[in-house]
């Protein structure tokens, strides 16, 4: 019996080369199982994995191309926007300079127009003053003349007779008529 039990122990520890048995060494069996699983996965999954990787690669390349195209379009739009911005800035500067020039020109024109208006007003004022002075002088001359005439007539009436009185009045009327024709 001892041989029988020894043979079981012996079989449990050292399996024979041609027989089937259980391997109780966990490390050795895990390595064998892993290598078998990896071998099967590599053999059968190689095509699927290769297809998945190729699809992923194509999507990445497509995304990169699209991104490059979008980047190129964005750069082109940026350049166009910069060109438009520079153009608008130049036009704004031209308008600003033109506006300043026109403002200064308009300012000069307004100052000149104001001086011309002042000169015209001064001329009108002087003409009005001269006219009023002349009118006042004429009124004073007429009053003085009337008073002198009345005084002379009063003196003549007291000193002259009727006939001399009529000749003097006729002469004075002639002088006044001549003066009136000169002033008209």
From TrEMBL:
Topology class, membrane: Single-pass membrane protein
Domain of life: Eukaryota
Keywords: ATP synthesis, CF(0), Chloroplast, Coiled coil, Hydrogen ion transport, Ion transport, Membrane, Plastid, Thylakoid, Transmembrane, Transmembrane helix, Transport
Coiled-coil region: 71-98
Keyword Repeat: no
Function: Component of the F(0) channel, it forms part of the peripheral stalk, linking F(1) to F(0). F(1)F(0) ATP synthase produces ATP from ADP in the presence of a proton or sodium gradient. F-type ATPases consist of two structural domains, F(1) containing the extramembraneous catalytic core and F(0) containing the membrane proton channel, linked together by a central stalk and a peripheral stalk. During catalysis, ATP synthesis in the catalytic domain of F(1) is coupled via a rotary mechanism of the central stalk subunits to proton translocation.
Protein name as catalogued: ATP synthase subunit b, chloroplastic
Organism: Brasenia schreberi (Water shield)
């Amino acid at each position: 019996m001892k041989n029988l039990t020894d043979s079981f122990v012996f079989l449990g520890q050292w399996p024979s080369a041609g027989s089937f048995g259980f391997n109780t060494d966990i490390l050795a069996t895990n390595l064998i199982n892993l290598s078998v699983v990896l071998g099967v996965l590599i053999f059968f999954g190689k095509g699927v994995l290769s297809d998945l990787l190729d699809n992923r690669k194509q999507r990445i390349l497509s995304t990169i191309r699209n991104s490059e195209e979008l980047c190129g379009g964005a750069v082109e739009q940026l350049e166009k926007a910069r060109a438009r911005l520079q153009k608008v800035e130049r036009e704004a500067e031209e308008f600003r300079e033109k506006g300043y020039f026109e403002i200064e020109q308009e300012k000069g024109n307004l100052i000149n127009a104001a001086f011309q208006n002042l000169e015209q007003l001064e001329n009108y004022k002087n003409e009005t003053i001269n006219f009023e002075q002349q009118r006042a002088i004429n009124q004073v001359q007429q009053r003085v003349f009337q008073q002198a005439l009345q005084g002379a007539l009063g003196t003549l009436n007291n000193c002259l007779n009727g006939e001399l009185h009529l000749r003097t009045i006729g002469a004075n009327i002639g002088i006044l008529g001549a003066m009136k024709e000169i002033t008209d």
